Structures are given as C-alpha cells and as structure tokens.
Batch of 3 targets.
Target 1
Amino acid sequence: MNEQKTPKKPLIFYVVLCFLALMIFNALFVPMMQNMRIKEVSYNTFVQMLNDGEISQVEYEDSQIVFAPSDKEDPYIYMTVTMPDIDITNRLIDAGVDFGRVQEKSNPLLSFLLTWILPVILMSLVGFWMMRMLQKRMGGGPNAMTFGKANAKVYVEAQTGKTFADVAGEDEAKEALKEIVDFLHNPKKYESIGATMPKGALLVGPPGTGKTLLAKAVAGEARVPFFSISGSEFVEMFVGMGAAKVRDLFKQAQEKAPCIVFIDEIDTIGKKRDAGIMGGNDEREQTLNQLLTEMDGFDGRKGVVILAATNRPDSLDPALLRPGRFDRRIPVELPDLAGREAILKVHAKQVKLEDNIDFNTVARATAGASGAELANIVNEAALRAVRCGRSAVSQEDLEESVEVVIAGYQRKSAVIPQKEREIVAYHEVGHALVAARQSNSAPVHKITIVPRTSGALGYTLQVSEDEQVLMSKEEILSKIATFTGGRAAEELIFKTCTSGASNDIEQATKLTRSMVTQLGMTDDFDMTALVTVSNQYLGGDTSMACSEQTAAKIDEKVISIIRDAHKKALKILSDNEPLLHQLAKFLLEKETITGEQFMSILEEYDRQANS
Ligand code: ADP
Ligand code: MG
Ligand code: ZN
C-alpha cells in the first residue's frame, strides 16, 4: 500500500514556492497590466492636445497631471508632469474640460477578480493540495476528508485469475475451502438444514506452501468480491488507524456480502496480547480488539467469510482461535511425494518441455521442498535450458536445478589444489560408503566434487525410493553415522581432519539432540520432552525445559551417541578400504558418480571379495 511517491522535499518548500509565485505576480504582472493603459507624455503634448480640444477630463495633482482623451477609441490614459504654467486652470476651464478623478479605463470586474478572487483561489488550491498530500502520507484514500479509510483491495475473479486447478496437491485444504466456496454460491442449501458456515478459516503452514495462492484460488472459484489486506497494513504510523481500518474493512465487506475477506500474515496483528515487554504494543492491541469485536458483530449467515493465513499459529491470541471466530484451522503442509510431483507438473505447464520427462525422479530428490521452491526449480531449469541454447527443458536441466536450489551454482572456475580435491573426494565417498553399507539408509543417488557457490566443495545426494513419514531409531542412528562418514574417511586415509566437516557436525548434532530431547529414543530419559518447540513452521526453535543437571546429562548422552556413530563409520570404512580407494579414484577422474555407477562398482567389489 501507499506506493504513490511521496514528495521528497518537505511541505514547507512548496508553501514558500507558492508565496514567492504570488509575490512575483504582484510585483511584476499587476503593474504591467496597469502600465499598459497609462501613457506618459511630455508637457508640450498635453498643451497641444488641450489646444486641439482632445482632452475630456483632467486630474491635477501636486507633481503630475493625469488626463483622459476625448477620443473614445483611444485606450490610454495620459500622464505628464506639472509645470509652472500660471493660467493653465483658466485655459482648462475655457476648453470645457471636466475636472476630477480620472477613472482608469480598467475593467472593474477584472480588477475585482485580480485583487480578490485570484489569491483566494490560489490559496485554496494550495491548501487543498497540501491536504491531499497529508492524506496520502497518512495512508488514506484519494477521497478528501476520509482519514483512515481501509485500503482493502477488492479482488474479483478476473483479477486473481487463480483457481483450484493452479494449486497442486494440498487436497485436504482444497476440500475444506471448497465447502466455503459452495456455501457462498448456495447459502440456501446450508440454511435449510440449519447449518451455519464457520465465520473464519485460518490457513496455517510453513512459508511457500501456497497459503496465499489458495486464498486467491478461493476468490477465483467463488466469483464473489475478495477483500485482501495484509496484517502489516493494519499497523501503521498513526495510532488508532489500525482499528479504524478494521472497522472500515468490515463495513465495506458487509455492504458487498456475500464476499471473502482475506487477512494475510495475520500474526502481525493477532499476536498474543501482553506478550510484549513494557506493556506491549498499544496500537496492535487496539487493532486486534477491533478485529475481535467485528468478528463477533456480524452475522455469519449473510455470507461474509474471513480467511486468514499465518505461519506462526502458536503465537496467535487464543481469543482469535475460539469457536465463532477462526474456528476452522486448515493446515497447509509441505507437499508429499505425490504433491511435489503434481506441483512440478503444474509449473512445468508454463515452460516448453522435452518428451519423456520423469517428474517422479525430481520429486523424489526434493523431499522437504515447499511449493515455492519447486516452482523455483522449474524456473531455474528453464533458465538453464536457455543458457545452454536449447529450446526445451530437459530432464538434466531439472535435476541440475534441484542441485542449484540445494547447493547453489557450480563454480566451474574455482581452482582447488589437487591435494584438497583428493580430501574432498575421500570425504564424499566416505559418506556414500557408510550409507551404502548400512541396511537402514537411503540409496546413494549421486556423488560429486564440483564446488558450488554455497561453499560446498562436494556432496553426496541420497534419494529414498518412496516417501517416508516415520523414521525409526535405527534409521536415525545410521543417518548420524553417515554424517560422520566424511570425517572418518579423512582420518582413515590422511590421518588428519579438515574444516570440511563443519556442516556434517552441525546436522549430526541437531539430529542427535532431537533424538534425545524430543523423540524420547534413549533409555536414560525415556519418553520425556526436554525442550519446548516454538515456531513449528519456521524452523522450529527449541528452548531447554529441564534442570541444569539434566542438560549436562543430555550433552553427555548426545556426545556418546555421536561418538558411537563415528566409531561405527570408521569401522565400516576400514573394513572396505580398497573399495574406498577405488571409488575415490573414480570420483577424482570423473568428478561425478551416478547412483548406478556407484552401485555397480560396489557389486563388482563384493563379487570379487566373495569368490
Ligand atoms: P505462502 O503464502 O504459503 O507463503 P504462496 O501462496 O505465496 O505461499 O506460494 C508462493 C508460490 O509458490 C506460489 O505463487 C506458487 O507459484 C507456488 N506454490 C506454492 N504451493 C503451491 C501448490 N500447492 N501448487 C502450485 N504452486 C504452488
Ligand atoms: Mg503468503
Ligand atoms: Zn561431509
């Protein structure tokens, strides 16, 4: 909102400018207009004209004589200086000249306009203009004197242009929203049985999962007016504006019913009250109170449905969530395998594709990606195709762009010393081998030692065959061992360790910690939750919920689990040392090993070992 450019110069600048303009006008223009009608002549001319009887009226002053010609066509009034001319008065009388004030031949109407009306008009224009500017700054609409009118944009079907067909996956969310659309189309059906629609529905889920998109799709499907406003727009500079905006928004909505009101990022106003230090934010609380009041105040049967979206539902005020307000909560979760494939297909419709693209492979490689990230992957693939001078997107483009999104672009120009390349190769093969030699880990999909812009010098991609919802303790333990496999290989071959394992260490520790403190997978602590999780959808920050003694024990436990995993990885690698050398050599040569190549080398080795 408020995209109009606010002038960069201060208001006073314009006021001064206006006064200057007025002064210049007065100083130059007005005398000029008058001068046009007054003509200065010599005394001789005056006497001459008097003798010729061409003067009709005269005004005799101390230092000047102003006189009017008898010729009615003459547009001028004349002026001359006084002279010690003794009998001039008599001569003037003789000539029958009229004494008195010489009327300027000005248009009385014009001079009235100039002296009275014009300044008034100018001043009121300036005033009006200043008013408008002030209003723009306060976020009011273009209408004069309507401070605090909500700038709720009215979306209609044609404007959002989205329908449920644009939203892939998220079937449960769509199901719930379809009911609302149906109600808006056909309220009688619900009334006849006595059912009332929920007044509000709250879309919750991690960022980029399509909450905003879903709300737009609802508007597109329902073909009713769609008021959309973002939570942050309520909370503005001037105190009281937020509440006024809420009031206004609901007034507008009730006039337009049936309609949908969509409040995006509602957590900006809906945060728990009293949550803040120093008594909280007054403005926000007023806005929230107004919202609560308005939601109680209107009749749900009229057909105003309120949708809101947030990725921090746990921070919302409980009053907002009680039945009768946002009583329906629609989770919009990260897509599963089928969902990812569907989202990829929806976005792939917008780009030219080669035949036989296997979206399933791409979907499997992107576990945990949101809809927004998948849309980004398709676009990256299209950009890559253009860069390579091709006219359609290939499978390779898609798979490469998955890696771009995970690890950044390839740094082709990076020069890595041979010794370091070797270390990286052994490190990555170490991960892959430890993974492959444990029964509970996902198959290796790709190993590469091409450096990436994210700083990764190489990585191992594991892709599981099908989507997993649950993870067993054994799987988690083998995952931790796989994380330690890189460092283990360095230690085994080079008898040293490098900084390249920092990310592995971080991830292994995080996983182990959650195993101990959240998942209850150790005997020592049994099924006790030792941390509290907040912001579940935004990374899930944890804070300790246990005594210091317990915290110390947790640390010990975490360390011992990781140590065991590390030992296990070292054992696996030293048992397979010839294989480790063979794979690392291959990787150094080719830079990349595919899953199939990796498996065939592994199988070949096993066959020889067994015979
Ligand atoms: P949110 O509001 O949940 O943070 P958005 O609705 O703004 O996410 O989604 C961002 C973009 O991601 C959308 O414009 C769309 O291109 C893509 N996207 C997300 N989820 C989906 C989905 N389920 N189907 C298709 N596209 C999606
Ligand atoms: Mg959004
Ligand atoms: Zn590593």
Note: Residues 447 and 460 are 4 Å apart (CA to CA).
Target 2
Amino acid sequence: MRARDLPPGYPAEWREAVSHPFLESVRDGSLPAGAFESWLAQDYRFVADLLVFQARLLARSPRPDQAVLAGGLVAVEAELGWFEEKAGERALGLDAPFLPATGAYRDFLAGLENEPYPVAITALWALEEVYLESWRGAAPGHPDYREFVEHWTTPEFADYVAGLEDSADAALRDAGEEERERAAAAFLKVCRLERDFWQMAWLGGGR
Ligand code: HMH
C-alpha cells in the first residue's frame, strides 16, 4: 500500500474532504464573513494541537524522517504566528471556544500518539494532502481570501507534503498487515474530520 493509493481507494470520502461549498465560496467570494472568521479561529485551535502532535511524532520518528518533520514543526509554529497576524488585521479574537469538529480533531490527534508510527505519519500526510488539494480547488481565490489560498498552494508546501508522502510510504512498506489496515482507517477518519471541519465553518457563517 502506498499513500497516494488511498484517495482513489476511497473516492467518495476523499471528495467530501477536499470539496465543499465553503471552498467554492472562497473562490468566488460569496462566503459570508462569519464563516471565514469561524474557520480562522477554529483552524488556529487546530494548528496549535497539530504542533503538539508533530512535536511528539518527531520525537519517535526514524532518522530519515527527522528533516521533513523538524521542518514541518518549525513551519507550523510560524503558521501560528501568521494566524495571529491575520486575525489582528481582521480585528478577530483567537480565543473562540472549541467547536465540536475541532474538539473531535483534537481527540483524534491525541489518540494517534498511541498508534504505531506508520499510522500516525499516514494521518499527518493525509491531513496536509487534504489542505493542498482543497485550497488548490479554491484557487486563485477571491481577493479577500487569496493570501490564504496562496499559503497552502505554494511549491514549498507541495514539496513538504511530497516529503511526508515519502515518509509514509517508507513506513507503510515496512508495516505489517494490521498496521496498514489501521493506517487506512486513520486516512478515512481524516477525510471525515476534514469534511466536518468545513461544514462547521460553513455553519459558523449562519447558513
Ligand atoms: C482542519 N486540516 C485542518 N487545518 C489545517 N490547517 C490543516 C489540515 C493543514 O495544516
């Protein structure tokens, strides 16, 4: 099993993770302001949890994966600062309470700490691949949101996701059948969590 075989293996779940009216509205500008702000505040919460997850994953990663994971950790910390800046520009507080989809994602990330490495690295690759694909679908994006589209569609981000894919592939190659099954299940769970996250943001706009 290779990481890149997972999306075509679960086409319906993948499609729902990477396409949503939220993203279409980012593209054409029809998004209600409240939806974007709800997404921003919740994603800031998510990224803070992701940083903790990645730090712990780095600590147990095999030597060949340390460069990509250490780079990702630094990038995620910088991303928190970037969110703070963007929220400041929009006069938006970042202390919003966790909404259910964000809390469910937090629980999932915490649970991955008890999963074998191949499962956790596959999940990390999957959630970043979802973001790459989702924001590519929203490109170039309405001017109000364009910098967010650009943030997750840069060649550097694509390279990072490709590096994670290589790490996931190496781990899956050495994994046993049960670990591979758990990795596929984690991929599916990421798809559902991502779908629910877009939906949460969309409803946050009052729709
Ligand atoms: C919900 N999934 C979600 N937010 C993100 N920022 C990413 C993935 C990618 O880092």
Note: The domain at 31-202 is CATH 1.20.910.10 (Heme Oxygenase; Chain A).
Target 3
Amino acid sequence: MEKFIINGGNKLNGFVRISGAKNAILPIMAASLLAEGKSVLENVPQLNDIKMMAHLLRIIGARVDFNNDVMEIDSTHCSFCEAPYELVSKMRASIYVLGPLLARFGEAKVSFPGGCAIGTRPVDLHLQAMEALGTEIRIEHGYISARSSGLKGNKIDFKISSVGASANALMAAVIAKGKTVIENAALEPEIGSLIEFLNLMGARISGKDTRRLVIEGVAKLEPVRMKMIPDRIETGTFLAAAVITGSDITIENCNPDHIKVPINVLKKIGCRIDTGSDLIKIKSPKQIKPTTIRTLPYPEFPTDLQAQFTAMLSLADGESRIEENIFPDRFMHVAELNRLDADIGVINNSAVIRCVKKLSGAPVMATDLRASAALVLAGLAAQGYTEISRIYHIDRGYDHIEQKLQKLGADIRRIKG
Ligand code: UD1
C-alpha cells in the first residue's frame, strides 16, 4: 500500500489545471450502454473509480478503450446484465448501470450496495423510480433483481433530492414508452451534464437545471462524442489548499459557476477571488476569519467539500461550525485531523472547529476519498512531516494530486508502504 509523505509549510504558487469531473463521467459512462455503437468521452482522467466503471462495462460486454484522456465505449455487443458484488462493494456508483440495463434489455441484476465510510446510504429512491416506470424489483441473496416487460413513462416524485436516483430515473425514462415527469430532481451540474449527453444521443428531456424534468420517451438513442465538465470538487479542494497554506494560486480549466457558494464562503473568510470564464485566481488572507457553513444539495455548499473546508478552518482565527445535512455521520476525518493538533469536536451533525495556532505533522490514516483530501491539506500546512496511509482512497477521485501539488511548490511524495 502506498503512502504520502508531506513536509508541511511550503507556500504554493503558480497554476493548476482541473481534470474532468468523476461524478459527471460515471453516470455518462453507464448511459453509453443505452445506444449500440461507439460513444466517445473527452477530458476523462485516469482515476480508479473510472477504471472500475470501465471494468464493469467490459463485464457487461462493452468494449472500452481508454487512452490519455479519451475514452471510447462501444456497447454494441453487451448482453450480460449484472453488476457483481465484487465491484459494487468497491464502488457504489456501479448502481448507475441499473437504469440503462433495464431500459435496453428489460432486466438487470445489481449487487445491493452495503455500508459506506460516510454513513448509511440507502438506494430506496433508485428502486422507487424503477418501479414507477413499470419494473418488478426483488431483493434476494444480496442482489437487486429488476425485470420489466417494457418501461412505461410515469410521474416520479422524489421525497428528497438525490443525484444518483435522478440519474438512474433519467437513464431509464429516456427510452420508456410515453412521458415521464421527475419532481424534485437533483440540480447538481453532474445531472445537467448527463441531460446534455442524453439529449445529444437523441433523448427528449426538458427542464434542465430545474427541479422538474419532463422526458418524452424515444424508441432509440445514437452514440455520441462529448467533452466532460471540469471537477468542481477538485477545484474547491485546490482553493482550500491555497488558503490553508496562505498562498495565492490560479486554477485553470474549471467552471467558477459550479462553485459559487464555496467561493462566497472563501470571500467571507477573507480571500480575494477573481474569476474568468474558466479560471479562478485566489489570494489568501494573512489570517483566516471563522465562519459557519451548512452542507445542502446544489446550489448550496457541497458535502463533498465539507472535510477539506473543516481542515482549512482549523487554522481560522476563532470558532467555526460546519453543519452536515447530507450525510450526518460524515466526520471520520475529524479524529485524524485532531492527531495533527486540530481542535475539532462533533456535536450531532455539526463539526465545531476551534482555533489552533498551528498544526503539527503526524502519521494519519485516510478513511474515504474526501477525508483523504482533508488530510493532505492539513499536512501541507502542518509543521514537520505528515505520513498519510491508505491513499488508495484518494486515487479513486483525484487525478495525480501529488504531482499537481508538487508543481505548485508543495513538498509531497508518494512512497511504497
Ligand atoms: C452523489 C455523489 C457523492 C456526493 C452525493 C451528494 C457520485 C458518484 N457520488 O452520491 O460524491 O457526496 O451525491 O452530493 O456522484 N438517499 C436516500 N435514498 C436513496 C438515495 C439517496 O435516502 O435512494 C439520500 C442519501 O442518504 C443522502 C441524500 O439522499 O442523504 C443525497 O444522496 P445522493 O444525492 O443520492 O448521493 P449519491 O448519488 O449517492
């Protein structure tokens, strides 16, 4: 197992280029199953989650070629309608094949996703959507077995906004017979980007960027080529890296519109931020002001930046608070940050982040993807050496993070464990 060794204290400077958004690419890869023929995705980073989804598509029978940042998915010869336990247990997003397989083949068998480091994550809304479209679902032997003799459009009213369930509902409804209306659909940019991809394939979805999506089912979709959107969570992570190290950097190839609320938080704590159409320049304050943040569905503050902003606010000049409203138990990083001399407590679903003058390096352990990023940020600011183990978590979702940080001037190395 590999580790990161960080010698903290270096200021960052220069430019960093943001990669394609993992969470937009995963459902789009699954959506490629909907059309026979070869779809081409551009701006795809070599991340472990993306390689895992490619593996799943190959098991299903697709041909996937992935060179540099271009992925070609030819789903002409797909026939095996199953997402096995071995893959789903490693990557929950495997459930994205449920909707497309049902739509194309009328059947799907997907291992029932189990527990997760960021808390309980049910899939009832995914199943509710499939049932509304005329699917018979059985849960047996740890698998979701879904079967339909032809999907039919219907009304799907989500009681809470879910990115994954909205994506699955869309991918099934596009070739269902008749009209589907999804109420309380997720507004996340990853859903917007999936809608663009599906419409490019020939789907008829209206209401993009609103909570009400109307889908007129079509008989057939065609394969297409599309460039993937930049990763807003990677963007926010590099912004927090600049602030925690008191640095000024420029972030390129990003979409500032996708991260307006985190940018406003950064302005409130004293940063100067200038944005262009695809870049953000950040100038960090000498002293970070404390603040209060609430994670909520998009366009509010994303849960996927909670851990990184918690690390950053541990050096603020006073007490901050972050309320976690999406995954209320998502605080595994707190105990590890406290090993680096942060002073953070958890009360119910809130982190209370008390002011410390400095962080100090120590061995710590990554527990999930975003928690690992928080530990990297803390290590960059800590005095002395921080050793982060289990960094396979970070390789799931950050594209060469240590190389990007090295280019900015950080002293971070990857070593064999
Ligand atoms: C996606 C992202 C994840 C991000 C999350 C919230 C991917 C691969 N993952 O996860 O990084 O943290 O959005 O922005 O894109 N819920 C239910 N029943 C369901 C589904 C969800 O109760 O069937 C609840 C969840 O427990 C959570 C809330 O809905 O409280 C939102 O979760 P959801 O948007 O579905 O998250 P994911 O799609 O799993």
Note: The pocket of uridine-diphosphate-N-acetylglucosamine is lined by residues 23, 26, 93, 121-126, 160, 162-165, 186, 190, 302-304, 326-327 (CB under 6 Å).
